[in-house]
């Protein structure tokens, strides 16, 4: 955002979208803007993109939400089957039901982390190819997920999210004006996170293209 000549205008527009996100359409447009950030950053542009072509922002945002929803089905189904099943079993078989529920909780947590780690790469892939199917071409971005630069970027983005939540929560505690100011801070943080994801993906993809299949062995995330 700091590289933009009209950064103030972009923050104002973005903050207003956050404020009115309860109307659903602004939230979808905001998600579409983040896809645009991912697209341009992955292509090497460091300036925050413009708010224009609103219809495309809406369509991209809607597609991104559908992609996220499909990914989140995995931990949701696991939770429903194991935790729900465990609770049902507990009525007649307390120990067995409790064990199943605990196992389900662990599996749901692990699946949630896996989805959280994978989803940014899938969304960048969608932003690049502009097709929803590309977000599910796992073999195409598996080397990206295994690259330590992507893993590092993901951890940095996580740290930004944690700090942003703390800061926005503190600001929102201020009567009347706090939640308004917090909305603009939240938008700025959202752009930062998208920038980090896009940059990490681009760096990992560069390694993949330069090193070829060796990237899987040469630059492991762990």
What does this entry look like structurally?
With 222 residues, the protein is mostly helical. The protein contains eight helices and no strands. Helix 2 (25-42) packs across helix 4 and helix 2 packs parallel to helix 7. The longest helix has 37 residues, at 54-90. The protein is globular. Mean pLDDT is 84; it is low at 214-218.
Helix and strand topology:
Blueprint: H1 7-19, H2 25-42, H3 54-90, H4 94-129, H5 138-146, H6 148-172, H7 178-211, H8 215-218
Helix pairs in contact: 1-7, 2-3, 2-4, 2-7, 3-4, 4-5, 5-7, 6-7
What are the key terms here?
mainly alpha
The ordered string of helix (H) and strand (E) elements is HHHHHHHH
Low-confidence stretches: 214-218
Strand content: under 5%
Biggest sheet details: none
The residue-averaged pLDDT reads: 84
What structural category do the secondary elements indicate?
Answer: mainly alpha
Enumerate how many helices there are, as a single number: 8
Terminus-to-terminus distance: 32 Å
Number of strands: 0
Report the radius of gyration as a whole number of Å. 20 Å
**Helix share, percent:** over 70%
The coarse silhouette is: globular
Question: How would you concisely characterize the structure shown here?
Answer:
This protein has 222 residues and is an all-alpha fold. It is built from eight helices and no strands. Helices cover 79% and strands 0% of the residues.
């Amino acid at each position: 955002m700091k590289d933009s000549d009209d950064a103030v205008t972009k923050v104002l527009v973005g903050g207003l979208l956050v404020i009115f996100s309860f109307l659903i359409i602004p939230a979808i447009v905001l998600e579409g803007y983040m896809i645009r950030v991912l697209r341009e950053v992955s292509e090497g542009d460091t300036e925050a993109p413009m708010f224009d072509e609103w219809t495309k922002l809406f369509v991209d945002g809607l597609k991104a939400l559908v992609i996220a929803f499909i990914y989140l089905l995995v931990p949701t189904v696991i939770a429903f089957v194991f935790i729900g099943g465990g609770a049902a079993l507990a009525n007649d078989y307390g120990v067995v039901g409790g064990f199943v529920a605990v196992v389900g909780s662990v599996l749901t947590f692990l699946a949630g982390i896996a989805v959280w780690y994978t989803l940014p790469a899938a969304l960048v892939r969608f932003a690049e190819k502009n097709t929803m199917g590309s977000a599910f071409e796992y073999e195409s971005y598996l080397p990206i997920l295994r690259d330590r630069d992507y893993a590092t970027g993901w951890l940095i983005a996580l740290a930004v999210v944690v700090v942003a939540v703390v800061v926005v929560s503190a600001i929102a505690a201020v009567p009347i004006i706090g939640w308004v100011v917090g909305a603009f801070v939240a938008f700025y943080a959202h752009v930062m996170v998208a920038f980090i994801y896009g940059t990490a993906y681009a760096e990992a993809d560069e390694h993949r293209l330069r090193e070829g299949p060796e990237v899987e062995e040469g630059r492991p995330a762990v």
